[in-house]
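Project channel, design review

CF: Before we commit to the Polaribacter filamentus constructs, I'd like one complete example in the thread so the newer folks can see what an input/output pair looks like. Taking Sulfatase N-terminal domain-containing protein.
RD: sounds good, go ahead.
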Amino acid sequence: MLTTLYSFQSNINEKKEKQNYNVLFIAIDDLRTELNCYGASHIKSPNIDKLAADGIMFKQAHVQQAICMVSRASIMSGIRPEKKGIYTGKAVQDLLPDVLTMNKFFKQNGYNIASCGKIYHHGLDTKNQFGDDEMTPKSTWTGKGYVTPEAIEKIALNTEFHRGPAYEFADVHDTIYKDGLNTLNAMRKMEVLSKDDKPFFLAVGLSKPHLPFTAPKKYWDMYPAASIHLSDLKKRPENSYRQAIRTRGELNSYYNIPQQYDEIDDATALNLRRAYYACVSYVDAQVGNLMNQLDKLGLRENTIVVLWGDHGYKLGDYNSWCKWTNMNIDTNVPFIFNTPNGKKGLVSESPVEALDIYPTLAELCGLEIPLHVDGQSIVPLFDDPTLNMDRIVYTQWPITRQDYDRTIMGYSAKSSRFNYVEWVKLSTGKVVATELFDHEIDPMETKNVVGDLSYKKEIKFLSEKLSKRIKTTDHDHKFKKID
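CF: and here is what came back for Sulfatase N-terminal domain-containing protein:
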């Protein structure tokens, strides 16, 4: 099947001529696949749902590392986190000064490029990559985006971190909070770009539903308290590696959150989930504004739209919060393409990677895919979404706590059925723990079945795939597989 995909892609490349398609590139922070179009009927996401209905939605899309800075650097550079130390989270301009990033690739090919909002994690990266066409509005209070006097007062008193409450919902217009203002600026920029003869690459980064969960009150009101429920995943996965899941991370830094993880009571957890859902609906409205602007300017029939999340998220699942694991709940993301004259209403279960965005956009625009790019074009799936179901995709997560010497990496090989993880001591290459989750019988990954002898064949296959991937990757540390 993989051979079929590559041969199909080759044929397309031979026949396709350069297309002057615009690209609207929508990045959403901390957005998990809990959307109506992904089966979560309790979530109000009509605009993202429509985008999916008008194009193709991928249900098994995974980022390469479930943290903002690394995921974004990998996507924009087209390079796996293992290479050049990307997994450390340092700035792209320091790690990859000579790499042809996605935005620079489009600029090199005659596109006008512009960004608004969070595209790269590091602000200097965004400024360096987009120059004068970076339009993120400046924020007060170290960019935390609070509106209410109570929150601002708390931040002023919290001189160490300048962080206020974990959630806030003021009765204000959408543009008073940053995502609404970013979207308004992006719409204005889109109008300017539309008047130029050159095609454009417009990157729009929406920061919610990242903490703090802040949005206009009307979105909070969309979710009555009685409609919110706690996660059904109360415990850590059975037999999982002891360091596979962190507890709370950044949530601890907000003043209205208890500092001991087991002190998050049900009422607080319910409010956090409600606040997250409200922020999802807030950014969904901004997606709708962007699409309406495309229509208003007559650009829809000549613009490729891609929407993606930079990683998933836990809302009390596994008694944990935020991201930072190899579990599917953290690596699986919304992944939607909408193309001019493309088929509508397609849903693909084929495993794909966030790395595939770069080469896919290149091919859709009739441009030659740069040789350094690690992902592969998934354009053939736009015609037949059932292709390549046997593909293996890869994610990783490092243990960075000092008591573990910052030396253990969790490497994951994911198929349409399994999530297989090897925890490796990087200094020796020794595998210190393994995990296997069978989604056919355990879609929520509640039990590690690596010790079940009936999976011996599958474990061997996935381990070999993972070992080959690691050994053929140009990374900064030495890796020697030890059985």
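RD: helpful, thanks. Confidence is low (pLDDT under 50) at residues 1-15, 139-143, 475-483.
CF: The chain is about 30% helix and 15% strand.
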